[in-house]
Amino acid sequence: MRAIVISEPGGPDVLTWSEVPDPVAGPGEALVEVTATAVNRADVSQRQGSYPPPPGAPEYPGLECSGRIVELGPQTEEAGWKVGDEVCALLSGGGYAEQVAVPVGQLLPIPSGVGLVEAAALPEVACTVWSNVFMRGGLRSGESLLVHGGGSGIGTFAIQLAHARGARVLTTAGSREKLDRCRELGADVGIDYHREDFASRVREETGGAGVDVILDIMGGSYLDANLRSLAVGGRLTIIGLMGGRKAEIDLGRMLVKRLSVHATTLRSRPTAEKAEIVAQVAEHVWPLVEAGSLRPIVDRELPLSQAAEAHRIMESSAHVGKIVLTN
Ligand SMILES: NC(=O)c1ccc[n+]([C@@H]2O[C@H](COP(=O)([O-])OP(=O)(O)OC[C@H]3O[C@@H](n4cnc5c(N)ncnc54)[C@H](OP(=O)(O)O)[C@@H]3O)[C@@H](O)[C@H]2O)c1
């Protein structure tokens, strides 16, 4: 088969569309013929050499895909899938390819009303947002959520999901155009982080109380301002380190306000944990997608052979939502 190979760590041009050995469905795995995959920031870090695939994961980038099951490995009978089923999948890697082997616990059906290509934009954001904002962060209806980077793949999904589940959503983004899109998706408050101090604006918008949950992609550079933006009992869930991995933490503030800080990554979790997240997404998130309360936000589609161009677009942050790559 062909796949996008990272010839050496570097810029987008190190991504080459190459002939590689076919993957094999091992025990507990399905072989999926990939219709589409989608680009994640993590793929950019992997290409640059700073985010290697976890042990046992395919070496090619790609954390999600949609397609058709073409083979089922041993010990997959109980999962109920059959050859020919259309699926989308959360991957540990290998989505930038014509075929990928995936544990059956990481397969999801294509939600009704969603096309096979656009479904590739859903698994990574749905699993990341569900596991962090709801499983870890425990966001409840009537509470408030601050989403950093509302125009990102993650952000556009988090806004829709929190809004659909009855939360008040505040979001930051880098331009008025992105904030307008965020409001269309259900954000109640948009904050341009280039022009405004987000912590002051959060205080203003919440009558001084702060928000209940924050989904953060910045890490170190935002830690103090995030803690200042949380309400009593607030939960900070950090999923990205675009602003660095180190910062000083004011434990006094945490004690007084009874705050918690969580930091997680989805990719390196054990297969059983991923399967639990995927099962919860199928139960709690897919019905909202099928009801039309949530939709995949696809900025554009490109052929997989043009993955380098897709990475250039992602690094420019010109996109809103997901960049999808098709076979
Ligand atoms: N831990 C996990 O399991 C996990 C899983 C998936 C994704 N992630 C992380 O989630 C983040 C988003 O991923 P993605 O694939 O959705 O990437 P993406 O679409 O490329 O989004 C990145 C966004 O960050 C925004 N941004 C940059 N600086 C910002 C700032 N100071 N404040 C607010 N927003 C800022 C950019 O837009 P503007 O600056 O124009 O607003 C852009 O929209 C990445 O850090 C990724 O590594 C983590």
UniProtKB/TrEMBL annotation:
Gene3D superfamilies cross-referenced by the UniProt entry: Medium-chain alcohol dehydrogenases, catalytic domain (3.90.180.10), NAD(P)-binding Rossmann-like Domain (3.40.50.720)
Ranges where the Enoyl reductase (ER) domain occurs: 10-325
Pfam families membership: ADH_N, ADH_zinc_N
Lineage per the UniProt record: Bacteria, Bacillati, Actinomycetota, Actinomycetes, Streptosporangiales
Source organism superkingdom: Bacteria
Protein name: Putative NAD(P)H quinone oxidoreductase, PIG3 family
Keyword 4Fe-4S assigned: no
Coiled coil stretches, renumbered: none
